[in-house]
Amino acid sequence: MLNKWSDMKNNALSVGYQAPAVQRAFQLLKLVAESPAEQSLSDLARNLGWSKSTTHGLIQSLLSVGALEQGPLGKKIVLGPAIVELAFQSWNYFQVGDKARPILETLRDEIGETVFLGVLGRSRGIIVATAESRKSLKISAPSGTSISLLAGALGKVYLASLSQDQAVRFIQERELPRYTEKTITDKNDYVAEINQVRQNGYAVDDEEYLPGVRAIAISVGNRRGLPLALWVVGFAGTMEKAVLPNFILHIQKAAQNLQKIMDLKGD
User: Fold this and answer.
1) Taking residues 241-267, what's their average pLDDT?
2) Does one domain contain both 54 and 96?
3) How far is residue 120's CA from residue 35's CA, in Å, rounded to a whole number?
4) pLDDT the model gives residue 246
5) CA triplet 97, 249, 189: central angle to 5 degrees?
6) 39/49 Cα distance (integer angstroms)
7) Among 62-66, 92-96, 178-182, which stretch is predicted with the lowest mean pLDDT?
8) Which of 66, 81, 158, 212 would suit a FRET pair with 227, their CA atoms being 20 to 30 Å apart?
């Protein structure tokens, strides 16, 4: 019996064993990543030539590990946070940052504050490009810096892109960390804040993550299912509330320009 198992093992190694489930999972992820539009279960089954039951089973497995995620209406399939985490390590995303940098620098020169572009996942955001303020006293962080998702404006932008039920469930399943005296830690208040962000189209961090620091963030859209955000950070003394409406207009214009040059899908 032992010799028989050894022969089977050697034969499998000699021909190069291939796991069908792994191959199918990769095919599915590849199709979702390369699709110009979000795909439904029927779309995926048809394009892959699989039965709906087979496709549904594989999608459910990939949803359970975060490799796929359902869109805001719960019908479309996009790449999930686990893939986002892997993409964080990919040099391709830093190439995206190189392409976007001229727009970030133009925005920086218009408003005088530090500008960031980053990818968002369910647990964190990561900076892929930055244009630092020219001021001697400024907020600074290099590309590759990881930021907790619930830190300030980024989490608000991400959660506002989800459906109401998804956002509420996300918030209810987590403790809201207190970073400063102004951090929103009441879950009902945080849900109300997300609703306001969804209505406004942008998020403001009013010294909620760092004392004396304000930020404005806006969704840029997504690149093959991976959400990107553009945000501006500065000291409260220079980012006074009176100038924020003008900043928001400049940020929105920059986001539109990024969508054009990077072939991004808007929310």
Assistant:
1) 86
2) no
3) 20
4) 96
5) 90
6) 14
7) 92-96
8) 212
Residue span of the structural domain in which 31 resides: 2-79
**Same domain for 212 and 131:** yes
- 267 within some domain: no
Non-local CB neighbours of 78 within 8 Å, separated by 6+ positions = 32, 38, 68, 69, 70, 71, 222, 225
Residue position matching structure tokens 């930055």: 130
Share of the chain above pLDDT 70, in %: 81
Same-domain status, 250 and 179: yes
DSSP secondary-structure letter at 243? G
Q: Which amino acid, 92?
A: N
User: What stretch of H or E contains 44?
Assistant: helix 41-48
The CATH code of the domain that includes 24 is 1.10.10.10
Tell me, yes or no, whether 115 and 150 share the same domain: yes
Helix (H) or strand (E) holding 164: helix 164-172
pLDDT digits (tens, 9 = 90+) for 68-113: 877 655 677 877 767 766 665 554 566 677 788 999 999 999 999 9
- The whole-number pLDDT of residue 173 equals 81
* Co-location of 26 and 96 in the same domain: no
Kindly report which listed range (2-6, 140-144, 248-252) carries the lowest average pLDDT score: 2-6
Packing angle, helices 41-48 and 20-34, rounded to 10: 120
